[in-house]
Specification:
Helix content: 25-40%
Oligomer: single chain
CATH superfamily: Histone deacetylase domain
Shape: globular
Order of helices and strands: EHEHHEEHEHEHEEHHEHEHH
Distance between the termini: 37 Å
Number of helices: 11
Number of strands: 10
Bound molecules: zinc ion
Largest sheet: 8 strands, parallel
Number of domains: 1
């Protein structure tokens, strides 16, 4: 039987929580045009006319759900600045008059995508939400993120829905999801696997040696990759991820779907095309079908190139639909000279050494 795909769609994500334009001291690539450009392409490609695609509406949630993951001080700060009409927190987080409501809706959208899959209304889902969440920490907004959409949703499942089964989070955003990692660092029931661009010269966050702690040791896995990684070897992290997923046997797989490893992204420095996201999605879908009845949810994180980002999302949907994907002509660039086989081999070797005491499937 053909699978059904849910897509969380809300046009407020495409029009609200705007950076304070014009503002000489502040510019943000994280803005409503990201969702607007995605929805524009999906409509142009007639995705919503496909009978296997179902639009999902973000759940209305109350503040007690945000409190599962964030301190009252952080929530009140966002609310206060939203009521005031604008504000900037740290270097990268802006607040506009609708920010609190939109950030709350991003959590509601993520919860709806996950529950639609768990309740079998759809087989897979994609939450097209913003602001992104994977850097947001319990006490503060960080790195363009206000609230941690994925962590809050999973804590909601645990606390309010009594869902205690194992969950795997695969984070493919260009940046390490320090926020998500923080929540589940000691939790053996959540596997957090992050593949991210890493500065091997000056150091970075998301070290290969961070494995979690206490009972959770071994269930945080960082797969740092060099900048300029291309389609040619991006997916090599599956050599580690696949056996671990089969051994861990989660009941649900969540993808923190950032698309800022895209070659033309203004923030990330990798060189992927939308083909990598198509191939990634095909592989993770196949694994999910084998281990957890295909229960797979994508949640939008980063990705800022307004021409490329919509194609990356479209590529994921084509993979979930099990349809062929033809990348756009403007992506046909030869990235061969950036090929970094040796570095990725080295990372795998070190990681295998670190993980073999925690996972029987890793030698
Ligand atoms: Zn990112």
């Amino acid at each position: 039987m053909n699978n059904k795909i849910g897509i969380v769609v809300d046009y407020q994500f495409a029009s609200q929580h705007k950076p304070p334009y014009p503002h000489p001291a502040f510019f943000s690539y994280e803005n409503p045009l990201r969702i607007a450009s995605i929805l524009n392409l999906l409509e142009e490609k007639k995705v919503f006319e496909n009978k296997r695609i179902m639009k999902l509406i973000p759940r209305t949630i109350n503040e007690s759900i945000i409190r599962l993951a964030h301190s009252q001080y952080h929530i009140d700060t966002i609310k206060r600045l939203s009521n005031y009409g604008n504000g900037i927190l740290g270097e990268e987080v802006f607040i506009s008059k609708n920010t609190f409501e939109i950030a709350k809706k991003a959590i509601g959208g993520t919860i709806e995508a996950i529950e639609a899959v768990l309740e079998q209304r759809v087989n897979q889902a994609f939450a097209l939400v913003r602001p992104p969440g994977h850097h947001a920490l319990r006490e503060t907004a960080s790195g363009l993120c206000i609230f941690n959409n994925i962590a809050t949703s999973l804590l909601y499942l645990r606390e309010k829905r009594n869902y205690k089964k194992k969950i795997a989070i695969i984070d493919i955003d260009d940046h390490f999801g320090d926020g998500i990692a923080q929540y589940f660092y000691e939790d053996p029931s959540v596997l957090y696997f992050s593949v991210h661009e890493f500065d091997f010269v000056d150091g970075d966050i998301g070290f290969i040696t961070e494995l979690g702690t206490g009972q959770g040791k071994g269930s945080t896995i960082n797969f740092p990759i060099p900048h300029d990684t291309t389609d040619q070897n991006f997916l090599e992290f599956f050599d580690i991820l696949t056996p671990i997923l089969y051994e861990f046997k989660p009941d649900l797989i969540i993808v923190a779907a950032g698309f800022d490893m895209y070659f033309a992204d203004q923030i990330g420095n990798c060189s992927l095309t939308s083909n990598s996201y198509y191939n990634f999605s095909k592989r993770i879908l196949e694994i999910s079908k084998n281990i957890c009845d295909g229960k797979l949810v994508f949640v939008l994180e980063g990705g800022y190139n307004l021409i490329g980002l919509p194609y990356c999302v479209y590529a994921v949907l084509k993979a979930l639909l099990n349809e062929q994907y033809n990348q756009p002509i403007f992506e046909r660039i030869d990235f061969g000279k950036y090929y970094k086989k040796i570095e990725i081999d080295k990372i795998q070797k070190i990681l295998r050494k670190l993980l073999k005491n925690h996972w029987k499937s890793i030698k």
